[in-house]
Amino acid sequence: MLDLGWGFLFDCTGFQAREVTVNKADLVEAVRSAADLTRGEAESAVDAVVSGVVSAVSSGERVTVAGFGSFNPSSRAARTGRNPQTGEPVKIAASTGVRFAPSTAFKQALNPRAAKKSAAKKAAGGKKAAAKTSAAKKNAAAKTLAKKSSSAPPKKQAAKTLAKKAAKSTKKR
Prior knowledge:
The protein has helices at residues 6-9, 24-35, 39-58, 104-110, 112-149, 154-172; strands spanning 63-65, 69-76, 79-82, 89-92, 95-102. It is α+β, with helices and mostly antiparallel strands and 173 residues long.
């Protein structure tokens, strides 16, 4: 039997690249044993989740299951393909599909070392970002204060700016 409990899903220490096919009966059995439900209750729970996701995605909505991931509807435009045997152009109709994006918790469970590194980077990056924003606010305040305190009339200010630019250009030559 396939164990789909939370502890099993997020314990990927012995993870090997392989494909596991889970049919509805296996999923119902896993839900039944994990939630201590009868088979009928587990089957109705699985049906409710699946039909809810399918109906929401088919109506164009994004479905997010916290701690698991998001199901996003995607549309593909009509296009012209080629028959590989004859090389003839073939019209391919527009279609709608679904894309799954795993949540951060799911990704971290798959990559435990990377999760520790990214958490450390976020903590260090948060401090740096806070320091940068406070420094930027101080600089912006100083600039606005300097602009307000300048006593030169607008025409003289423009003349001063032109003089500074001319001085800089002569220094470069």
